[in-house]
Structures are given as structure tokens and as C-alpha cells.
């Protein structure tokens, strides 16, 4: 699980950069829109929407933006941008590193073309559906800010709340749950007075693949390029990212 957590840590730092804020907002708006379209505009009766709204508030997405995204999802508002669809892509990066990419797009031809181009230009290739999905397991991920937290006490609270694992990172603590327990574990943690930064479903590799520094550097660059694409919501790989590798490629 270490590679997933290290990449999450890198993205967490980048999300704080002002230059990234508009992209972060875009991703949350799309998630709220899709959640409202699929399950209705009432967060009390739509767990996915409730989760999306809380995550959006965590990055200070303005209330007006949240309300517009809900109305777009329920069909009360047409902003001319078309309907967004959820789609996944699978492929391989340099060194045979597996990639599972989640995206939300209003133009699937554009999105697949852009992602194929990124793969091809940087030593990878876009695969077919199912080509790497079996290498990953879907889990729940809850991020908690470490500030003012007693780590040992939190681990005990998290386990009691339904956590499967707990990862201690530089700036946050990640609580891992089985897919079905994400929402209930988040609720249990909040009832214990724990402030949640975000909660989402992630795909964690069942087996990680080691990469030499040069291969790791190429894949981190590839992950950055995918992350910069407005349609891409999440990137998951099976590359092993330990502290030693990150230090060698200058990402620590």
C-alpha cells in the first residue's frame, strides 16, 4: 500500500498550490454533478453526493459552485457544457508499470485521444478494458490532517471505527477501509471528534512493482501529465514508491 500512499502524499502537496486550485475545483464540481445525476440532489438520501459535497468543502469550493453543480446534475440547470460521463482507462507506463485511470468527460473521443497521446509520447501504451484492472483492489481512503493528532490513539479509534489499515504520512494520516465501509467509517470517526479532510474510493495494487530511479522518474512524470489533464480524476499505478526511491528521484 506504500506506493499508493506516497503518490497520495505528492498529490496532497500539489493540491495546496494556488496554480492547481482551478483544476481541483473542476474535479470536485464534476464529481458533485455526476453524483447528483445518478442519485438525486438531496445529500441526505444520496451518500455519494453527501461525500462529494464534504470533500468539496474541504478544498474551500464556494457554496454557489456546489449548488450549481447539483442543479446541473439534476437537470435544473443547463450550462451548455454537456453531460459528463465516468470512464476508466487502463495501460502500461515505462518499465511495465500498470496504470488504472479514472476520468469524467463530456467528450470521450477527446479524452481517449489525449490519454493515448500521453501514454505513447512518454514510453507507455493504452491497453484494453480489463488489461490491468485485476491487479488492483478497490478500497475506501479517508485522509485526516495530522496536526494536533495523537497518532497511536487515532489508530485505535480508526480500527474501532471500521478501518482495515492506517498509513502515517508526512502531512496526513490515511485510513483504509473495505469498499463497503467507507461512509460508515467516516461517520464513526466524525462521531469520535475526528476532523476528516477527504474520503474517497481508491484502487490499491495487490502487488507492487519495484522500479529503478530512472524508471520511477519517467513514471512520476507520466503520472504528473495525466494529473494535469482536466478530465482525469484519479491515477493509480502498481509502482513501488518507497522513501529511498523518492529521495533518489528528488520527490521527497
What is the tally of beta strands?
8
Integer tally of domains: 3
How do the SSEs run, as a string of H and E?
Answer: HHHHEEHEEHEEHEHEH
Shape: globular
Low-confidence stretches: none
The helicity comes to 40-55%
Which strand-content bin applies to the residues? 15-25%
Radius of gyration, Cα only, in angstroms?
Answer: 18 Å
And the CATH topology of the largest domain?
Alpha-Beta Plaits
Strand order of the largest sheet: 3-1-2-8
Largest sheet: 4 strands, antiparallel
What's the topology here?
Blueprint: H1 2-15, H2 21-39, H3 47-58, H4 63-74, E1 85-92, E2 98-105, H5 108-121, E3 125-126, E4 136-145, H6 151-161, E5 165-168, E6 172-178, H7 182-191, E7 198-205, H8 213-228, E8 232-237, H9 243-248
Antiparallel strand pairs: 1-2, 1-3, 2-8, 4-6, 4-7, 5-6
How does this model look, in words?
With 252 residues, this protein is of the alpha+beta class. A hairpin with a 3-residue loop joins strand 5 and strand 6 (172-178). Helix 2 (21-39) packs parallel to helix 4. The strands form two sheets. It has a four-stranded antiparallel beta sheet. It has a four-stranded antiparallel beta sheet with strand order 5-6-4-7, with helices on both faces. It is globular and about 45 Å long. It contains nine helices and eight strands. It has helices at residues 2-15, 21-39, 47-58, 63-74, 108-121, 151-161, 182-191, 213-228, 243-248; strands at 85-92, 98-105, 125-126, 136-145, 165-168, 172-178, 198-205, 232-237. The model has no long low-confidence stretch (mean pLDDT 88). The protein has three domains: 2-74, Integrase, N-terminal zinc-binding domain (Arc Repressor Mutant, subunit A), CATH 1.10.10; 85-131 and 208-248, YebC, transcriptional regulation domain (Alpha-Beta Plaits, 2-Layer Sandwich); 135-205, YebC, transcriptional regulation domain (Alpha-Beta Plaits, 2-Layer Sandwich).
Amino acid at each position: 500500500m506504500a506506493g499508493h500512499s506516497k503518490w497520495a502524499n505528492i498529490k496532497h502537496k500539489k493540491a495546496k498550490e494556488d496554480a492547481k486550485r482551478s483544476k481541483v475545483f473542476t474535479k470536485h464540481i464534476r464529481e458533485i454533478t455526476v453524483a447528483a445525476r445518478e442519485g438525486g440532489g438531496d445529500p441526505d438520501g444520496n451518500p455519494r453526493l453527501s461525500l462529494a459535497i464534504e470533500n468539496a468543502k474541504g478544498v474551500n469550493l464556494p457554496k454557489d459552485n456546489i449548488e450549481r453543480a447539483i442543479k446541473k446534475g439534476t437537470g435544473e440547470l443547463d450550462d451548455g457544457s454537456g453531460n459528463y460521463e465516468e470512464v476508466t482507462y487502463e495501460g502500461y507506463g515505462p518499465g511495465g508499470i500498470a496504470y488504472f485511470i479514472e476520468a469524467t468527460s463530456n467528450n470521450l473521443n477527446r479524452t481517449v485521444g489525449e490519454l493515448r497521446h500521453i501514454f505513447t509520447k512518454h514510453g507507455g501504451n493504452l491497453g484494453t478494458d480489463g488489461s490491468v484492472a485485476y491487479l488492483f483492489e478497490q478500497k475506501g481512503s479517508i485522509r485526516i490532517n495530522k496536526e494536533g493528532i495523537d497518532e497511536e490513539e487515532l489508530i485505535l479509534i480508526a480500527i474501532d471505527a471500521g478501518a482495515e489499515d492506517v498509513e502515517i504520512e508526512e502531512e496526513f494520516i490515511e485510513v483504509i477501509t473495505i469498499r463497503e465501509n467507507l461512509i460508515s467509517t467516516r461517520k464513526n470517526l466524525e462521531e469520535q471528534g475526528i476532523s476528516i479532510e477527504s474520503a474517497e474510493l481508491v484502487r490499491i495494487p495487490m502487488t507492487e512493482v519495484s522500479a529503478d530511479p530512472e524508471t520511477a522518474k519517467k513514471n512520476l512524470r507520466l503520472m504528473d501529465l495525466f494529473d494535469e489533464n482536466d478530465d482525469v480524476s484519479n491515477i493509480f499505478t502498481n509502482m513501488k514508491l518507497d522513501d529511498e526511491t523518492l529521495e533518489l528521484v528528488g520527490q521527497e
